[in-house]
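Incident review: delayed structure delivery

Summary: a single-chain prediction request sat in the queue longer than the usual turnaround. Root cause was a stuck worker, restarted by the on-call engineer. No data loss occurred. The affected request and its eventual output are reproduced below so the record is complete for anyone auditing the incident later.

Affected input:
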Amino acid sequence: MAPRGGPRKRYVAFTVEAGPTSPPPSRAAMVEALDAVCASAGLPEVRRLTTFDGRAGIVRCTNLERDAMLAALGSIVAVGGAPARVVPVATSGTIKKAKSHLGAGHGQ
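Output delivered after worker restart:
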């Protein structure tokens, strides 16, 4: 198969590690945190959060933006005003495969 020109979609699976007494962050809080770090990383302003359940999620980017997205995710220190750490788990070319990296509750 011949290589395809142009950017290709990538899906980055991640988990959120919050304090033991902190409630899971909401989707809106995660979108706000993601928008802030993506803007500071120079990534385009587009809706990137594909799925999120308070503990884990998937963000979309292109293969050209992947490294900047990983750095942006790693730079999140708070979600919804509560201290939290975002840990990228895996990068995939499909949402299905990215969900499989997150385990039960995110699969097919």
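Verification: The chain has one domain: 9-102.
Action items: add queue-age alerting; document worker restart procedure.
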